[in-house]
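Lecture 7 notes: from sequence to structure.
We start with the chain below.
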Amino acid sequence: MTQNAAPGLAGSIDAPSRLELFWEKNKRLVNGGLIAAVIAIGAHYAWKYKVDRDRAEAWTALAIAANLDEGYAKPSEMWDTFKELIPQNPGYVGGYYYTAQTSLVAGFAEQVKAADDAKLRVLASGDDGRAPLALWALSNRAIAREEFDVAVAGLAELQKRFPEHFLCKESSFPVQWRPEIKLAEESKPDVRRKKPELEPARPGSLVAMRVQQVEAEREFRASHPEYYTAPLADSSETIVVEFEGAGVVKFKLFSTRVPKHAERLLALARESWWVGQRVHLVERAPSSQSFNDSTPNHFVFGWPSTKEAENSKWKEEDLKPENTLDVEDSGVSLFPGMVSVELAKDGKSQVERIVINSEDEAAVADGNRVVVGRVTEGIEIVREIVSGEFADDASAKSGRGRPQNGYKITAVRVE
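Predicted structure tokens for the same chain:
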């Protein structure tokens, strides 16, 4: 007798795999582990983001306190010029970063001079990586402000507290400027050398070398006080010039040093030669760059044509013969607040054309003008005129041109 299988049971029965059994048994644990892993990864990156952000904020705080944030935490002054060129040629991006870096290096002394002393001292009192650099910035700020005792004390503190810092550790070749070895004419090769030959590197530490530089600067200043202290003008009389919209500027003359110039200038003042004239030229640092500290900072007056209100009618005219003199060398450098006169193409002195500088111009103009006097009152008026708005955008970008306010001379007298 044949036995038949019950309906519905025909075929094979599949048993669950080990993986399926594992999943059914542990799926809650696996899901929990995956969720925990995602949370852990998210927490790690959140923590990493916070650490990076805090680090960036910390170092940005140092850059801002040291007044070095231009090019680091904010665009440099040159960005306005480069951003117009980049759409035409993306290669200018690299040019911008290069010039911004150059600006930071070349302009370090002037930038750090305006650093925030209080903020730097707070950072310097800490124990993190910013402290030694804050002390370094404070010391260099003091050097730029000619506070040499403060600078040496700051460098000594830096050396004492952080002897293992790269600024303090001695090296056979610390960062330094090395002058080029000048070859005699007969020993110069016929072909151009790829690299100049430099003086051997000096061993030591950056801190020790900076102290040596300070001491050398002190010694040089003691030996050459005439380079750092402007002499007093010795004329008994004072020339007073009133500028409309600005104020009064008074100056005395170096009558002993430049007697002929002093005599002629006093005569011009007594006859009110400059009354009605306007400032026809202002020169200062161009707005399109910040890395060149050697720039003019002065204004000029002395064109009779500037009595016309419309500056398009202003032009340089021939001088009166009596206002053209042989050059007298006063021996005075162009310290801030010096009064000088322009030189003509033939080398003669143009006595009626007056230049008054608001900042030191020794590097750019010593020897190019005759220094005839010194401002005794109103240096703030001189700076106001030099920093005033230009008549057009091109002048503003170049730092040279006619002022928006002509600063008409309303009175000239001798006191």
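Points to note: Residues 289-293 have pLDDT under 50 and may be disordered. The radius of gyration is 35 Å.
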